[in-house]
Fold each of these.
Amino acid sequence: QVQLVESGGGPVQAGGSLRLSCAASVRSFSNYAMGWFRQVPGKERELVARISSAGSIYYEHSVQGRFTISRDNTNNALYLQMNNLKPEDTAVYYCNAVGRRDYWGQGIQVTVSS
């Protein structure tokens, strides 16, 4: 059973920073590709950033240069450092693990005010 718990969201002003964390209760965490997705009402969930088990990283174009994804395989944790936040980054952010199937956290709200 895989459990993912996000933390670190909340309100922030434009230009500010937040660091999201995802605590993963899973065996062999290092074998999972991990990612952050986000969703706003009325739109599909979209990939923000992904890090493979080997450490390869992908960023969605709009967050390149502002967001940094990282993982701590020793502590079964995933992070998303978000800098220079913009109002359009407002969304519910989800932690994702890819194993035999996709696993999801419960989501955490990030609200960026102008």
Amino acid sequence: VQLQASGGGLAQPGGSLRLSCAASGFTLDEYHIGWFRQAPGKVREEITCIGTNGGSTYYPDSVKGRFTVSRDNARKRIYLQMNSLKPDDTAVYYCHEFKTDSWGQGTLVTVSS
């Protein structure tokens, strides 16, 4: 199982970014995938989880209504659309496969003017 997150970068407050998680080494459509983030000096927190049928089961209040997870099993990709970004969204973002506890290399998101 290999996961690789990409799409991070610098965004202004109120801006948008779309993160992508590329999956390889397993049949993506059989697994739930989560997005997590870790800000400097803080514990890693779960942002969302997307089920095998594309249903999302969780968004914390900190991102609810602003972030949307989706999946494209044919392309073996999981996406995280992030809108209305805030400085508090600055963190390294990771994708995660729960069954094998596999973590991808994170991608840094910095929200700053």
